Structures are given as C-alpha cells and as structure tokens.
Amino acid sequence: MLEPRPDAELRRARDRGEAPDPARVAVISVHTSPGDQPGSGDSGGMNVYVREVAGRLVEQGIQVDIYTRLDGDPGPRVQDIGDGARLIRVPAGPRGPVPKEDLPKHLPEFLDGVLSHAHAEDPTPHRHSPYDVVHSHYWLSGWVGSQAKQIWGVPLVASFHTLGKVKNDSLDDRDHLEPSIRLAGEQKVVHGADRILAPTPVEAGQLVSLYGADPARIRIISPGVDTELFVPRPKAEARARLHLAKARLVLFVGRLQPFKGPDVAVRALAAAVRQAPELMRDAVLAVVGGPAGQQSQPDEVARLMQLASSAGVGDRVVFFPPQPHERLADFYSAAEVVLVPSRWESFGLVALEAEACGTPVIAADAGGLRDVVVDGSTGFLVKGHDPDRYGAKIVELFSDRKLARRLSAAAVRHAARFSWDATAAEIRGVYRELLPREAS
C-alpha cells in the first residue's frame, strides 16, 4: 500500500507561499523499460535517462513509480529497481515483444492497468490524485499521460527524446518514415502538456517551429552522465580486459539501424585504412550494440559484416552485443576514438559517456551532438556522412598523439559539466512550478 500523502506538509508550504515538492510522481514509459539493456531493440538513451533521473529524485525525497508494459518476462509485476524507485509492469496486448508501430492499439488497455493499479494501492475515496505529477517519456507514453492528467486532475510533464517530424527529415534511404499516427500523437501531447522538457535549445526551437509549442511551457534540461562510473581507465588495462590488447581501437556504440550510422562507421574505418595504411595497420573497429525494434540481429550483423568485407576491412571489424555500463566504460576507455555518425540525435549520451572516459569523439554535426561535442576541443563534428571525412579525422587523431591527449583532457572537463544530480534537481524544479501555492 502507498503511504498517506503528507498533505499537512504541503499545506504548510503553500501557506508560506512556497512551491512544495511533489510527494509522488508517476513516470510513464510504455514501450521500453528502464530495466532493459540499452543498445538493442527499442532501448537506448531514454532507458538510461528514466532510470538515472528516477533514482536521483528518490534521493531527493520524491516517491517515483515507473509504469512500463509487461512484455512477458516472468519477473514480479512490481519491483524496486535498486535505487528506491518502483517499476510497475502493466499487461497490455500480447505477452511478449510487440513492434512499436503496433503499440498504439494497446494504449487504452495500458491506461486501464495504470489506473487500476493506482486505485488498488490507495482505494480510499478522497479528493486527491494518487500522484502529484505525471511525467511521460516518448509520444506513446504521452497519450497515456494525457488521459491520466484529465482523470486524476494533475499536471503533465512530457519528454519526447526523439521527434517524428525531425526524424523524417533526417532519414537514410533504408529507414522508414515515421507514421502519421505518431506525428498526430506528438502534436496532441505538445498542446496538452503543462511542461515540455527539451534537452537542447535546438529541440526547443523545433518544438515551437514544427509543432507550434508554447515557448512558455518549454524547459531546457540537459541529460547527465554518471561520472563515478564513466571515468578514464588505464587504456592498456581496459584493452586487456576486452581481449583487444594488440589493437588500436575505433569504437561504435548504439543500436544497429541505418539512422545511427553503423555503416558509416565501417566505411570510415575503410577510408582511414586507404588514406594511411601503415598508420592504421593495427586499427580495429569494435561495434557494440544490437538491432533496433524486432529485427533479427544475425541478419543485421551479417549485412554489416558483408559491407566490411566488400570495403576490404572484414578482418578489422569485431561485433559485440549490447554491454552493461560497467563493461561499456572499459570499451570507451580502451578506444582511441568513438564514432557517433547518427543522422540525428536529440542529445547523444554515447558521446557524453565517451568524453567522460577521456575518449575523443568524432560525431555528425547534427542535433544535440553539437552541444555534447565541442568541435576541435573534445573531438570533431563532421558535416554530412561522407566516410572519407570521418576517415580523415581518424587518421588525424591516430597520427598526432599530442592532439589526442589535448582532446582527451578537454573531453573529461567538458563531461564534468553534466550530472544526473543536476538534471534531476532541475526536473524537480519543473514539478514544483506546477504544484499550487497559496500566498500567506
């Protein structure tokens, strides 16, 4: 059972004219659970974001319940995810993975599950909602959050993480356009949310220009990085733990889908080898990640392996499945450079994690990557997706050890500006904006 809300404490804060902290927050993450392994399926930076922020909010005294879809895992329906936040898995649709494009038809069932769970834990009739704020992540969750807002009479905070209209403008020829139901759903959430969180000023501008969002409702809050976990580790030791002791490592981390550009990474390595064969004689590209959505990993890996073979670097590209964060920190530290050639990124957590480990980043000059990578200081931004341009930057880093050391030191300093504690504190401030206050 939920503990009674501290209504007297809230009233005292309001009587003093202060904005009180919320006691309870419902976080909606329908299509992917913060317990999922980032880098495969539909899991990625959003999973990290939800879990890290939830843990920090709990540390700041706020109860956080994260609602996600039960996908068939036999684990408990309600569980503490290790930081005090609760993960509540709601049945909706088939017991098993469901393609993201099929999830909209299961949203009403998911909403019913959320409402039923909240009521079962606190069935006593009263004038209050079981939560003070609802925070949705991605447009599917935004639909659920919008309904909960109306039913419970509480404010809605929306985070999108990616925007369909922006993604459609940035797609590779092999990617599919985002469907009209997503674009319409995003539009409704934008107009119905009390606050919208954007990771960068660029996305804030897109919300206004593409969706007609009210600028007064937008708050720009950067994601963070765990600088206790992602720290520089001795490169030789990290390589040894990965059994790559003899390699000079180029690294790609992310879902294996055209939008993320793993093909560009493979071609970039081939370009670097052509441009400086002797310098690159020990270079190896490690590709860490799994397929997006419901794709078959062997098929996607086979496609990239064939690409590497045809580009003449088939023996230099090594594939690894998605890695837990502790292991991922070894990959970052072992690498000479991390490639992030995405067609677009709302922010770019991979780039920030790599920088925190002291590894320079060569990234696409697109979206939030411009805020994460300081061109010429923590790495390089590359316009377009020409593999030769990426290859030339790899060669430049490999050939100039002094430059590499300078970029590495600057990367660590830059990443230190971002923290999950700060992110959560700013989000907490947004929640407080939305709670009623009374002048004394």
Keywords:
alpha/beta; Rossmann fold; eight-stranded mixed sheet; six-stranded parallel sheet; globular
**CATH topology title of the largest domain:** Rossmann fold
Mind telling me the CATH class of the largest domain? Alpha Beta
Q: What are the segments in which pLDDT stays under 50 over at least 5 consecutive residues?
A: 1-16
CATH second-level architecture of the largest domain: 3-Layer(aba) Sandwich
Q: What share of the residues does DSSP label as strand, in percent?
A: 15-25%
What is the strand tally? 14
Could you state the order of secondary-structure elements as H and E?
HEHEEEHEHEHHEHEHEHEHEHEHEHEHHH
- CATH superfamily (homologous) name of the largest domain: Glycogen Phosphorylase B
Rg computed from alpha carbons, rounded to a whole number of angstroms: 23 Å
Describe the strand arrangement of the main beta sheet, using strand numbers.
Answer: 3-4-2-1-5-6-7-8
Number of helices: 16
Biggest beta sheet attributes:
8 strands, mixed
Structural class: alpha/beta
* Helix percentage range: 40-55%
Q: Report the mean per-residue pLDDT as an integer.
A: 90
